[in-house]
Design a protein that fits this description.
The complex is a heterodimer.
Chain A lengths: L1 E9 H4 L5 H8 L4 E9 L18 E8 L12 H19 L7 H15 L2 H5 L2 H11 L13 H14 L20 E5 L5 H11 L3 E5 L3 H9 L6 H21 L2 E4 L2 H9 L30 E5 L8 H14 L4 E5 L7 H12 L5 E5 L4 H6 L3 E4 L8 H8 L3 E5 L4 H5 L4 E3 L4 H12 L2 H19 L1 H18 L38 H4 L8 H7 L1
Parallel strand pairs in A: 1-2, 1-4, 2-3, 4-5, 5-6, 7-8, 7-10, 8-9, 10-11, 11-12
Helix pairs in contact in A: 3-4, 3-6, 6-7, 7-10, 8-10, 9-10, 12-13, 12-17, 15-18
Chain B lengths: L33 H8 L1 H6 L3 H10 L4 H4 L7 H11 L16 H28 L5 H17 L6 H14 L9 H12 L1 H19 L5 H8 L2 H27 L9 H8 L2 H22 L3 H19 L4 H24 L23 H5 L14
Classes of the chains: A alpha/beta, B mainly alpha.
Chain lengths: 537, 389
């Protein structure tokens, strides 16, 4: 099967073998993966510190499109096409600005994609004065949502620029059915959501390619969080966040399968209109499951806290709770691992420790060499965060075999489950009580630690992820019409058995003439997919 | 296997805990409207929210999850967020402090820098030109091309081609200083180039004004209306400065080397050194230079980079048939008058005042890291080795 992996990442990150995409491609060698990368950041190939990453074996090709930053050079549309561009853009902007016309988002988007595919003039058009005038006119029309502020001229310019950057994937040269284009893939796999889903949406619209969306940490939620501190005025923020919300809703509506990384994310996806029947939670696998269990406990009753030093991780709660632990158990020490997330926050924490009179027993260790080192240093691992959006750190701590105490927020309940202690957030008494209970009971500590390690090994291993996606891919293409229907044809599900799509990894490519019936349905792809056709014989 | 998650200790109000403790359902009767306290705590977020999901994200960041939402009589945090969104009216944010105008020192410094960078080659050419014996055109041509190199580096902005065009154009306008066209003409050309400092200041002022109006005008039509008189004023300012400079230079020249004819006062001598044609030519050159500088600073460097060399070449070609001053007047005047309407229209376009170098896109983003750079900042720094994506 030919699978197009779509993701947004930095240049160096996405091509590494130990990235999520790399592990997937390495695990499913029977499929041919092509990576379509919306590249963030500069192209500069700076050598990375540390060991050289293994290259990804399974990736057949990498296609890149620079996102953000400078607009790609190019001419605007010709005069007679500019009218169609304006109409399509107006349709899109009306959906963003007028609450009553949200439904025109999809049609406007696809129309723009169609136009951009024909002449590639979209970026220049979006940056032009014509597009700005359309935006201003719609934004200032009656009925526009400007509850907390009218747009100024500056806002129109900024919003037009940001929209141009977000819509850049529409003008990628990935569409079509030639070799290496999205139209020749059997399915698309979007990793990360957001603008990375745009090419998949367009490919589905143009070529009928189904797509899967995998999200670890929701793109939309991160947008809401980061735009809160962005230096944009309210109207720009409202316009852009509406764009991301409508894009996410359209993505969830069109996606064949959604695979969030946790049921916490699943709730958000359902809130954004995803059909629960099409959601399958696939936990993010981590290679750390192969790690040895942490060694002997330290001689002193030590607590380990880990995470970035920032208000969201609430190290203050940990310090307050530790002061109470210390009152009961004078020998206790606290080791805090992690770098500053907010400048000056470490000093703030040190002052609090000083004020509580526990400065002598608290050490700020900074960034550990490896996470395992941090877990090793304590008897109990404590997480006091106000929000726990990603299961990574919790799972890593559980894999060490140490008992875990966590605040009951975000993913903590489903990750830790019955194998650790959950306490309400912002409650030093509860946290201190849980820590004391574990520090004073070695047998319980060992039992919970072992149970936690087994639970994390079961849920966060890499192999189940590979198996899950092997099944999802096959199930998907077997349900999907084998080939996109032409104008007068009827869609024919089950036209090919699922095995048809398993292109033999080592199969010798055969000349296209050898395929007796493949040429009729997909003439353009014969040369591109000899493996798939050979398998069909 | 251990049993269900034991909740260690009852959730109780922290005595010395961090601010904003959760409401306590255990003690006494619960408040009639528990959400009211939540509204008070998150008022700013609720007033600025664009939709309920934004409030939900903020609530989750503040530690309110599905479990805590029950205290507020909601099944999940989304329902709670919708209640907050419905109960708190949207409120326009405090008007942001107006963009702090660039300190005057910087603007003046830039103008002085431009004057020095252009003045040095001009003065050098003037000195060499007056000392140049009738060696003829090859030497003059070589000198001009040499002068074009430092001048091209002082172009305000743009690509390599734009810089080349700019340097060549200015060097060609300096041609009278080396071709021996006459004392006054050479002096006037040098002064016109020296006055690029003033042109730079005018262009800066135009840009500052435009960016100020960007943040206060409500529609593009209003912006255009406000910008209509700005370019003419900038041009007039530059012309006035150049007139003063020219007159000063002429006066200085007549003080140093009194001309023939009846001895008069300094002013008399200065007035006699240049005729009406020469003054008109000087005004035409000034018009061309200030428009070109303004366009280069804006988003339209290409026409400026073309106009300058075209005017210079035309002036050189016409010098054979007409007196030098008349040739300059004809060439620079024509090109300048053609450029004027274009620059005037361009100065009314909001797109000409983007912050940052032209084409680098994206509006004001003072913090360097835009939302998308921070959007993925979901991982705890220090713990990335075990969790690469």
């Amino acid at each position: 099967m030919r699978i197009a992996l779509l993701t947004e990442s930095t240049y160096s990150n996405a091509k590494r073998g130990d990235s999520w995409c790399g592990r997937l491609a390495d695990g499913l060698v029977e499929h041919e993966f092509q990576l379509y990368l919306l590249a963030r950041g500069a192209r500069a190939e700076e050598p990375e510190p540390g060991p050289v990453r293994p290259p990804v074996r399974g990736l057949a090709a990498v296609h890149e499109l620079p996102m953000w930053g400078r607009r790609p050079a190019g001419r605007g549309p010709s005069a007679h096409r500019r009218r169609s561009y304006r109409k399509a853009y107006e349709q899109l902007v009306r959906a963003l600005v007028l609450p009553g016309e949200r439904a025109s988002f999809g049609p406007g988007l696809y129309r723009l994609a169609e136009l951009a595919g024909a002449d590639g003039a979209l970026p220049a058009f979006l940056a032009s004065g014509a597009a700005q005038r359309v935006l201003e006119q719609v934004w200032r029309s009656p009925g526009a949502d400007t509850a907390a502020g009218q747009p100024l001229v500056r806002d129109v310019l900024v919003a037009a620029d940001l929209l141009e950057q977000c819509l850049r994937p529409l003008s990628a040269d990935w569409y079509g059915t030639g070799p290496g284009a999205l139209g020749s893939a059997d399915l698309c796999h979007v990793v990360g959501g957001g603008p990375a889903a745009l090419p998949a949406l367009v490919a589905k619209q143009l070529h009928g390619i189904p797509f899967v969306v995998t999200e670890h940490g929701l793109h939309l939620r991160e947008q809401y969080r980061s735009y809160r501190t962005a230096p944009y005025r309210w109207p720009v923020r409202a316009l852009l966040l509406t764009f991301f919300r409508l894009l996410t809703e359209e993505t969830y509506r069109q996606a064949a399968v959604l695979t969030p990384g946790s049921s916490y994310d699943q709730q958000w996806q359902q809130r954004c209109g995803a059909d629960p029947a099409r959601i399958r939670v696939v936990h993010e696998g981590t290679p750390a499951v192969a790690r040895e269990v942490a060694g002997a406990e330290p001689p002193e009753p030590a607590l380990v806290w880990a995470g970035a030093l920032e208000p969201g991780r609430d190290p203050e709660l940990m310090l307050h709770a530790f002061a109470q632990v210390r009152a009961e158990l004078p020998g206790a020490v606290l080791r805090m691992y992690g770098e500053e997330g907010v400048p000056g926050y470490r000093l703030h924490c040190e002052e609090i420790a000083e004020r509580l009179g526990v400065a002598g027993a608290v050490t700020f260790e900074g960034r550990p060499g490896t996470p395992a080192e941090a877990w090793q240093a304590g008897r109990v691992v404590v997480f006091s965060a106000l929000a726990q959006r990603s299961p990574r750190l919790l799972a890593d701590a559980m894999l060490s075999g140490r008992a875990v105490v966590a605040t009951d927020v975000g993913v903590a309940r489903e990750v830790v489950g019955p194998t650790g202690l959950l306490v309400p957030p912002r409650s030093p008494q509860a946290l201190a009580g849980a820590c004391l209970a574990l520090l004073g009971d070695e047998e319980r500590r060992a039992r919970l630690g072992l149970a936690g390690r087994l639970r994390a090994q079961e849920r966060f291993a890499v192999e189940p992820v590979i198996t899950a996606f092997r099944d999802i891919y096959l199930e998907l293409v077997s349900r999907w019409p084998a080939f996109p229907a032409g104008a007068g044809e009827r869609l024919q599900p089950f036209a090919r058995p699922a095995e048809y799509w398993v292109a033999g990894a080592g199969a010798e490519p055969e000349p296209p003439e050898a395929a007796p019936d493949g040429g009729r349905e997909r003439p353009a792809d014969d040369a591109a997919a000899p493996g798939a056709l050979a398998e069909a014989l | 296997m251990p049993g269900p998650p034991p909740r260690a200790g009852a959730p109780a109000r922290p005595a010395t805990g961090p601010p904003g403790g959760a409401p306590d359902p255990a003690t006494g009767t619960p408040p009639a409207d528990p959400v009211r306290e939540l509204i008070a705590r998150h008022r700013a977020v609720c007033e600025q929210a664009v939709d309920p999901l934004e409030i939900a994200a903020a609530l989750e960041d503040a530690g309110i999850g599905a479990g805590t939402a029950g205290h507020y009589r909601h099944a999940d945090v989304f329902g709670l967020a919708e209640e907050l969104y419905a109960r708190v009216p949207r409120r326009p944010p405090e008007p942001a402090p107006a963009e702090r105008p660039a300190p005057w020192a910087r603007s003046w410094g830039r103008a002085t820098g431009a004057a020095v960078r252009h003045g040095l080659p001009a003065a050098l050419l003037l000195l060499v030109g007056s000392a140049l014996p009738g060696l003829g055109r090859p030497v003059a041509l070589a000198l001009l091309l040499l002068a074009a190199v430092p001048l091209s580096r002082s172009a305000p902005a743009g690509s390599r081609a734009v810089r080349c065009g700019y340097g060549l154009g200015i060097a060609l306008l300096l041609a009278p200083t080396v071709t021996g066209a006459g004392g006054a003409d050479a002096l006037l050309a040098a002064v016109a180039v020296l006055a690029l400092g003033s042109a730079a200041w005018s262009a800066d002022w135009l840009r500052r004004t435009g960016r100020g109006h960007l943040g206060s005008a409500r529609t593009m039509a209003e912006f255009r209306g406000r910008m209509r008189p700005v370019l003419p004023v900038a041009v007039l300012l530059h012309l006035a400065v150049l007139a003063v400079l020219t007159f000063g230079a002429l006066a200085a020249a007549s003080a140093l080397a009194p001309g023939p004819g009846p001895a008069g006062g300094l002013l008399h001598g200065a007035a006699h050194r240049a005729g009406a044609t020469q003054w008109a030519a000087q005004a035409a050159v000034a018009l061309l230079l200030v428009l070109a500088t303004a366009l280069l600073r804006g988003e339209h460097p290409a026409p400026a980079a073309v106009a300058l060399p075209v005017a210079g070449v035309a002036a050189l070609l016409l010098t054979g048939a007409f007196p030098a001053a008349a040739a300059r007047l004809a060439a620079c005047g024509t090109v300048g008058l053609l450029l004027l309407p274009y620059a005037w229209v361009a100065s009314g376009r909001p797109g000409s005042y983007r912050p940052g170098p032209p084409g680098r896109a994206t509006g004001p983003r003072p913090h360097g890291r835009g939302p998308r750079e921070t959007a993925r900042g979901v991982r705890a720094p220090g713990f990335r080795e075990g969790h690469p994506r």
